[in-house]
Specification:
Helix 2 packs antiparallel against helix 3. The chain is mostly helical and 107 residues long. The longest helix is centred in the C-terminal third of the chain and has 18 residues. The chain is 79% helix and 0% strand. It is globular and about 45 Å long. It has a single domain, classed as Alpha Horseshoe (Serine Threonine Protein Phosphatase 5, Tetratricopeptide repeat), CATH 1.25.40.
């Protein structure tokens, strides 16, 4: 019997429960590792739609956007993610996104 790829496994988890933000985030991360940034962004946006406080989804969506040279989109994800992280008190995520935003603005 053939073993399923990680991508197939994550897709299956999302199909079983489309509202499971953890599985959808993991699927987005798997697409990142496969350099399919458009698909990754699509899943991170869905995570954000389902749970607007999922701050790391904004960061990953920004990174994927940056890989596609969508700088304005990346900045928008980071700015929103910074607000969300501050609201949650997630200072580590906030600081990471602030540094990423600063790097984008210096380019």
């Amino acid at each position: 019997m053939e073993e399923k790829s990680r991508l197939e496994q994550f897709k299956e988890f999302v199909e079983l429960d489309p509202s499971d933000t953890f599985s959808r985030y993991a699927l987005g991360m798997e697409y990142m590792s496969l350099f399919n940034f458009e698909e990754a962004i699509r899943h991170f946006q869905e995570v954000i739609r389902l749970d607007p406080k999922y701050d790391v989804a904004y960061f990953q969506a920004a990174l994927a956007s940056q890989k596609l040279d969508l700088v304005d989109q990346a900045k928008a994800f980071l700015q929103k993610g910074i607000q969300v992280a501050e609201m949650k008190g997630d200072l580590h995520a906030r600081d990471e996104m602030l540094a990423a935003l600063q790097n984008l603005e210096e380019e």
